[in-house]
Amino acid sequence: MNRQIFAPEHDVFRETVRTFLAKEVLPHYEQWENDGIVSREAWRAAGRQGLLGLAVPEEFGGGGNDDFRYSAVLAEEFTRAGVSGLALGLHNDIVGPYLTRLSTPEQKRRWLPGFCSGETVTAIAMTEPGAGSDLQGIRTTAEDRGDHWLLNGSKTFISNGILADLVVVVARTAPEGGAKGLSLLVVERGAAGFERGRNLEKIGQKSQDTAELFFHDVRVPKENLLGELHGGFLHLMTNLAQERMGIAVAGIAAAEHLLEITTRYVKEREAFGRPLSKLQHVRFEIAEMATECAVTRTFLDRCIVEHADGTLDAVHASMAKWWATELQKRVADRCLQLHGGYGYMAEFPVARAYTDGRIQTIYGGTTEIMKEIIGRSLLS
User: Fold this and answer.
1) Residue 242 and residue 227: Cα distance in Å, rounded?
2) Reduced to 3 states, what is the DSSP secondary structure of residue 341?
3) Is the CB of residue 42 less than 8 Å from the CB of residue 51?
4) What is the DSSP string of 130-143?
5) What does the DSSP 8-state code read for residue 198?
6) Catalytic residue positions, numbered
7) What CA–CA distance (Å, rounded) separates 122 from 294?
8) In 69-83, which positions are buried (b, 16+ CB within 10 angstroms) versus exposed (e)?
9) How many Å apart are CA 275 and CA 271, to the nearest integer?
């Protein structure tokens, strides 16, 4: 089905992204996978190409356009290229809104130019060893010491954790339990007591640096409080819908791309003297996946438009996230099966897509949490 949500300017941007991937990413990607981290030059190249800070005001070096469809194009093209390591979506769509919507004029001047140029790589530190999807269980604390906060605690599974120059840390600034008393503090590279642990070894997304972070009596200046004091939980709930939409967009793009490459494969690969595509079971598998992708794409495109218009609610973002990522997981498994033994070989795109995509149903809120949000909204 022809997609109706993009204008000519989005198509031009898509070509820009494809050119960037071909020139600055794909020639180096295998090396990044081996290194377990992407190069800083790739971030600076993305900045030069105008791919960072799409929604940041132009006065700070950004694109000045908060149309989410540009972010959707970026997510789709990176997903189709199979390059999850260069986490521009995390930088633009997850951390970016906190900096643009919550920061003071002074903070904007201090942080946003580097954010847009690629000189400042960002991360957000929510997850802890004992608190994943349940943000109310956060134990990292920040004690008010007059002119600074004294930050103590640890975080884990932090994307961009090794490269990050600026980390938005979720910490408890009041003794109340649950959702009360959480605040967002910005910790900058080089702060005394801020240490990075291992670059965690994962089954997929190997070039995406994912780290443990430790905070031992870190003195965070008062001017690094982001947003309202004790308002962190509300800030997180407000911005999580966009994070989930970004993951959902990548999910359907991945499923569609896997379907494309598998359709080509079964037409070319022969078994019992004829192409696999001549087997009824294979045709049924392709037909089922194509139908599921088409139905999901229709819903996702509607969500993209509504989010770009500012009308998408958290419930429908949760629906999009859990459905698209679970579809991605199913399609990856079925496509690998249709590739047979070759699907298990790392040199085949389907193999990397299988391992890289498995995290999709977990980060940004697990499928189970998405269902809880939806169910609670319908039954409370």
Assistant:
1) 18
2) helix
3) no
4) TBSS-GGG---EEE
5) E
6) 243
7) 35
8) bbbbbbbbbbbbbbb
9) 6
Q: Name the DSSP class of 227.
A: S
Burial of 30 (0-12, 13-18, 19+ CB in 10 A): exposed
Is the per-residue pLDDT at 180 higher than 90?
no
* Distance separating alpha carbons of residues 272 and 358, to the nearest angstrom: 33
Q: Please compute the mean of the pLDDT values over residues 104-127 and round it to a whole number.
A: 98
What DSSP character marks residue 365? Answer: S
Nearest of 373, 144, 354 to residue 237 by alpha carbon: 373
Give, in order, the Cα–Cα distances in Å from 243 to each of 6, 75, 95, 124, 318.
Answer: 21, 12, 9, 12, 10
Helix (H, G, I), strand (E, B) or coil at 332: helix
Supply 154's token pair: 């640890």
For the chain, give the number of residues: 380
Q: Annotate 281-311 with b (16+ C-beta within 10 A) or e (fewer).
A: ebeebbeebeebbeebbebbbebbbbbbeee
Name the token pair of 70.
């540009």
What integer is the mean pLDDT of 355-363? Answer: 96
Backbone angles phi, psi at 360, to 5 degrees: -60, -35
| Tokens at 102, concatenated | 């919550």
User: What is the CB neighbour count within 10 angstroms for residue 272?
Assistant: 8
For Cα atoms 264, 352, 261, give the angle at the middle one, nearest 5 degrees. Answer: 10
Compute CA 312 distance to the chain's CA centroid, rounded to the nearest angstrom. Answer: 18
38's tokens: 């992407």
Pairing of β 166-172 and β 122-125? parallel
Average pLDDT over residues 32-56: 98
Rounded to two decimals, what is the model's pTM? Answer: 0.95
pLDDT of residue 217: 98
List strand residue ranges (DSSP E) for 122-256, in order.
122-125, 141-144, 148-159, 166-172, 182-188, 194-199, 210-221, 225-226
- Six token digits for residue 374: 């939806």
Mean pLDDT on 146-153: 97
The values of phi and psi at residue 215, to 5°, are -125, 110
- Nearest alpha carbon to residue 68 among 47, 87, 89, 44: 89
CA dist 354 and 13 (Å) reads 28
